[in-house]
Design a protein that fits this description.
14 helices, 4 strands
């Protein structure tokens, strides 16, 4: 079955490999020309451009220890993230403007008329820009720059060129950094790398010293405030002790407690003694009416005179009893004995009465002493309560003084440590490998460039050949007619040679 003409026109035809070869053979002149031009251009660039040398120095960034400016305790709890940030910060600071500026000034690069640009393209573009600027009229280039602004602009351009020469990378799984510098002069590349490392270390140390100075300044200000507060607290504490006549609450409290205990003991002794006298006086009052109770009186009163009178009365009673058996009641001896016995009894009663009065007088003295002691105890207890009330304010003022003094002593100690650290080299960055003068350039790599130019020339030539073949719509052969128009070729008219004459027309 025959296919419709419309479908056959849009049907894709399978391309054979031989057709690609035919295209390459057909465009071989273009391929060879592009190949030669690419190789020649690469060779010209590789052999004409100035060689670039690279020198590398190594730094080590140790773990930095940080302490609290007040307590002195370590606060360096470094995680992987913070360590990464530390390295990234160091990498950025190495190529920062202050470090580059110090490097330029150390090597006197701003005063040397030297071409430091290593990129041929950037150098060509910069020169083109300069030429265009010089060709433009003065009014079209903008405002006229002052010498300072012009110098600043030149310095910024020089800093940018130096920054582009530098590459910084961290060595994997280490605290090492490679600082590489490229330049057309090997000596300058090594000098730049070493000077850059030195200036970065100085810059880092200067920042730490500036931070230490700021911390020291802050500590001095805080010390001044703490000293004023300490003096104020000591003054308040002294005025309070002077106003209340208190020099030691603890000692005064102990003294009051000791006196209260002592007076209590004396009060109890006096009270017991008074109560004992009350009992004696009561017993004596009950037994004074009869001589039968004289024995009880003698046990209550320790008086030798009463003992002697009592013994005399006993003797007289015995004598009277003996005489009564001999004589009658009116006998003079009995009367005399009875008279002496009565006198003795009266004397005993008088002595007992005197003894009772003495006991009453002693009781009065003890009672007065007891009342005085009771009053003294009440006064001391009131003083102890008043001392306890003052103890709170005393304790607050004393605690304020102690706290201010401790803070002041701690601040003085931290200031002394800061002064010591400020004079010491506390940088955690060290140079472990000095940059050496390179012998062989890193670019251009002539062998690699030539190999790449061969490959690139072939690919570029083949690509252009297929591109031109794709863009060529000229019909040249009967195959082109069949391919593009899908029409059969009926006949072919050969190209006749004009130099040959024919006798007849066909």
């Amino acid at each position: 079955m025959q296919e419709p003409a419309g479908e056959s026109l849009f049907q894709e035809r399978e391309i054979h490999l031989s057709e690609y070869l035919m295209v390459l053979m057909k465009r071989r002149t273009l391929i060879i020309l592009v190949f030669i031009l690419t190789v020649l251009a690469t060779a010209f660039y590789s052999f004409s451009v100035a060689p670039v040398f690279e020198s590398t120095a190594k730094l080590i960034i140790d773990k930095e220890t940080s302490n609290s400016p007040i307590t002195g305790e370590r606060t360096d709890y470094e995680s992987f993230h913070s360590q990464t940030m530390t390295f990234n910060t160091s990498i950025k600071m190495i190529t920062s403007t202050p470090v580059i500026t110090q490097t330029i000034q150390a090597l006197n690069l701003d005063a040397q008329d030297k071409d430091l640009e290593i990129s041929f393209i950037k150098k060509w573009l910069s020169q083109l820009k300069t030429n265009i600027t010089q060709l433009l009229p003065a009014g079209e280039t903008g405002e006229t720059l002052s010498p300072e602004e012009l110098e600043n602009q030149e310095m910024q351009a020089l800093i940018k060129i130096i920054q582009e020469k530098i590459s910084v990378e961290q060595i994997r799984d280490t605290r090492l950094l490679n600082i590489s510098v490229k330049d057309k002069e090997p000596e300058l590349a090594a000098a730049l790398a070493n000077t850059l490392v030195d200036k970065f270390m100085e810059f880092n140390l200067a920042n730490k010293m500036a931070s230490s100075r700021q911390t020291l300044e802050w500590l001095n200000n805080e010390l001044y405030d703490l000293r004023r507060k300490l003096e104020e607290d000591e003054r308040k504490f002294f005025e309070y002790k002077q106003a209340n006549m208190v020099f030691s609450i603890e000692g005064k409290q102990q003294q009051a407690e000791q006196k209260i205990q002592e007076f209590n003991q004396r009060y109890l002794e006096t009270r017991n003694r008074r109560m004992e006298l009350d009992a004696k006086i009561h017993a004596l009052n009950q037994n004074m009416g009869s001589l039968k109770e004289v024995a009880n009186v003698r046990s209550l009163i320790n008086n030798p005179l009463i003992e002697s009178i009592y013994a005399k009365i006993i003797d007289l009673e015995i004598e009277l009893s003996r005489l009564s058996k001999i004589y009658k009641s009116k006998h003079p001896q009995i009367v005399q004995a009875q008279s002496e016995l009565q006198k003795s009894r009266n004397s005993l009663a008088q002595e007992i009465a005197k003894e009772v009065e003495n006991l009453k007088s002693e009781r009065g003295v003890l009672l007065a002493r007891e009342q005085a002691l009771e009053q003294n105890i009440a006064e001391f207890e009131g003083e102890a309560l008043d001392t306890s009330a003052k103890e709170l304010q005393y304790t607050i003022l004393q605690r304020n003084v102690n706290t201010s003094k401790n803070l002041y002593d701690l601040m003085v100690s931290r200031i002394k440590e800061s002064n010591i650290l400020q004079t010491a080299n506390t940088s955690n960055i060290r140079k472990v490998e000095t940059a050496q003068v390179p012998v062989n350039p890193v670019s251009p790599n002539k062998r690699r460039n030539l190999l790449l130019s061969v490959v690139l020339g072939l690919f570029l030539g083949c690509g252009l050949a297929f591109f031109f073949e794709y863009m060529d719509r000229t019909v040249r052969t009967d195959e082109d007619i069949q391919e593009h128009f899908n029409l059969p070729v009926l006949s072919v008219i050969p190209l006749a040679d004009k130099s040959v004459s024919y006798g007849a027309d066909y």
